[in-house]
Amino acid sequence: ISSVENTGNLTVMGGGLVGCLLSLYLARHGHQVELFERRPDIRGAGPVEGRSINLALSDRGWRALEGVGIAEAVREVAIAMHGRMMHDTQGGLTFQPYGQAGQSIYSVSRAGLNRRMLDLVEQEPGITVRFNQQCRRVDLKRQELEMLDTETQQERVVPYQRLFGVDGAYSAVRSALQRTDRFNYSQEYLNYGYKELTIEAAAGGQWAIERNALHIWPRGQYMMIALPNLDGSFNCTLFFPYEGPDSFATLQTPAQVTEFFGRVFPDALPLMPQLETEFFENPTASLVTIRCFPWAEQDHVLLLGDAAHAIVPFYGQGMNAGFEDCTILNELLHQHGHDWGRIFQEFEALRKPNTDAMADLAVYNFQEMRDRVADPRFLLQKKIESKISAQYPEKWLPLYSQVTFSSLPYAEAWANGQAQERIMQRLMPHIQQEEDYQRPEVQQLLAQEMAHRS
Ligand code: FAD
């Protein structure tokens, strides 16, 4: 093991989505940044691969990208999704807009976005990127990293002055913090796994189902979703129990898979010619919520992104929350300059309640997506809510909009959403159809409820 001098005064561990954005922000504040990434340079692998995994990007993410001037470049490769398209077991469709006209979330390719961000990171003066560098261990006392070069298998020790752990849900930086006194840590897995599948493009690279929507096949105890790709295909994700009557455990043969999809997702099956191969070749991945605290070790180490707060994907907010971490850190850098101790402390105090709320929201939304969106009463409630929001725009914003189309702190959004849900529980027994909203007793009840809201 040889000791190599660290060239930068800030070290970023992890060149994923959040690590790249964070590096850009730090460099814009005039810092020298050294970015380590375990994987090889993904841009070496040719054009964006056919099977691209995509993510939903929404307002918080856009705001963070705008902060370093890269939102427009990303928008060029993003597809707007204006609402949810629900598919029932007969192939019938119901569309539910996400927000008001003009409000959409955006499907972006994870690999495409990461490549674009790596391009920008490399062009940025002040950032040095090192690929194939895996962090094996962090010595917090000596402020040293044990790094493995995954190409040459050589190990070396790299000193750091200030370390940012953005190395994802299974963070090596966090595991060093986990061995310090009074460090809280929990991880919780769902009994569900997910598998990625593909709806192929139709002839001529067209989209076989509505392009500008996030498709959902809600089936009570499980669901499939699909997000559009630029090439006409859709990236589908099946969220499915590991065990039980309808589960990964019961689908063991290609014939069982096809029979099951034909029965529960009949309109999707003909669009998925690779289903049998993909189902058995693509991994079944688990779904975890990770909470920990503190995120900072003195003014030396700070965790951000999934390393600090990994959540389940049902609100489409994991990356958006990690990007918002960068927005908040940037504001603190503006306020406190080089007072890192204060910046780190304020960062974790500001962010922790909000990412905890987001973790709860993500689990809550799983139930809504897989189950409640198939219930006509629930859809009626959503319609009524949007009427309330139109009538009382100052007092009512649907929870989904607060999370997705605003930058209100997640904890406030969650508390507001729960208060609004309680009002809906009182109101809905008086409403059997959309027109009932105008009935005098409903309007009167609503006016009373609104009088209590600031
Ligand atoms: P990561 O993306 O995990 O990046 C970590 C980086 O660190 C990687 O490049 C990794 O190679 C590197 N690394 C790891 N360990 C080491 C080490 N020891 N040494 C050096 N480098 C290391 N979020 C959304 O906002 N919208 C969505 O629609 C959405 N959908 C999702 C769907 C699924 C199925 C899943 C699983 C997640 C989804 N997310 C979504 C969440 C999103 O993927 C994450 O929140 C986001 O990728 C976190 O970014 P990150 O940079 O913190 O971590």
Please describe what this structure looks like.
This protein has 454 residues and is of the alpha/beta class. It has three domains: 2-80 and 107-186 and 288-363, 3-Layer(bba) Sandwich (FAD/NAD(P)-binding domain); 188-286; 375-451, no CATH class. It is 37% helix and 24% strand. It has an eight-stranded mixed beta sheet, sandwiched between helices. Helix 1 (17-28) links the parallel strand 2 (10-13) and strand 3. Bound molecules: flavin-adenine dinucleotide. Flavin-adenine dinucleotide is lined by residues 13-19, 36-39, 55-56, 134-135, 166-168, 172, 194, 237, 305-306, 313, 316-320, 322.
Q: How can the largest sheet be summarized?
A: 8 strands, mixed
Report the CATH superfamily of the largest domain: FAD/NAD(P)-binding domain
Biggest sheet: strands side by side, in what order? 7-6-15-16-17-14-18-21
CATH architecture of the largest domain: 3-Layer(bba) Sandwich
Poorly predicted regions are 1-7
Bound molecules: flavin-adenine dinucleotide
For this structure, the CATH topology of the largest domain is FAD/NAD(P)-binding domain
Our count of domains comes out at 3
Shape, please? globular
Number of strands: 21
User: What gap, in angstroms, lies between the N and C termini?
Assistant: 63 Å
